[in-house]
Amino acid sequence: MKDKAAVLLSGLCLLHCFLPPLIISLGLMSFAGEMLESEWVHLALLFPVVGLALFSLPVSYRNHRSRGPMLVAAAGITALSSALILPETLELWITVPGACLLMFAHSWNSMLLQRQTVVSPEVLVRATR
After folding, report:
1. CA 36 – CA 46 distance, rounded (Å)
2. Nearest Cα residue to 112 out of 70, 66, 80, 62
3. CA–CA separation, 73 vs 103, rounded Å?
4. Other Cβ atoms closer than 10 A to 80
5. Sign of CA dihedral 111, 112, 116, 117
6. What are the pLDDT digits (tens) for 8-65?
7. Rounded to an integer, what is the distance from CA 31 to the centroid of its chain?
8. How many beta carbons lie within 10 A of that of residue 127, not counting itself?
9. Which CA distances in Å does 10 have to 7, 95, 98?
10. What is the pLDDT of residues 55-108, one digit of tens each?
11. How far apart are CA 115 and CA 98, in angstroms?
12. Cβ atoms 83, 43 nearer than 8 A
């Protein structure tokens, strides 16, 4: 459930990245466009995205023992966070891959957890006897 919410939030980051240019290209830049470009929106999206990753992935690691999702998520979090301090011209080129990395990490994590529940420890113990 946490992974699905995290994928949704990362998708909102992508939507946020693509909406302002679309609004500008349609000539609809107004309060909504200015609001989407404001710094507080970036922070309002970044904190739950990072929080869910930090809450979800380490707990899941204890179940499936695969570091891959955490490493991919760390790269995504680094990209999203660095977009706050790098020049605005690079923001789109950094946040889109960062959000995609986080979406991939949570999807991978979810897949590993599902695979873990399909092959329960009891089945593995019986198989080794």
Report:
1. 14
2. 66
3. 8
4. 25
5. negative
6. 778 877 777 776 666 666 665 565 556 666 677 778 888 888 888 888 888 888 888 9
7. 27
8. 8
9. 5, 10, 9
10. 888 888 888 899 999 999 999 999 989 988 888 888 888 988 998 998 899 899
11. 26
12. no
Domain ranges of the chain: 2-128
Give the Cα separation of 77 and 7 in Å (integer): 13
> What's the whole-model pTM score?
0.70
Do 5 and 101 touch, CB atoms closer than 8 A?
no
What is each CA distance from 38 to 4, 32, 88, 91, 120, in whole angstroms?
27, 10, 12, 13, 47
Measure the N-to-C terminal CA separation of the chain; round to a whole number of Å. Answer: 34
Short-list 34, 45, 36, 60, CA closest to 10? 45
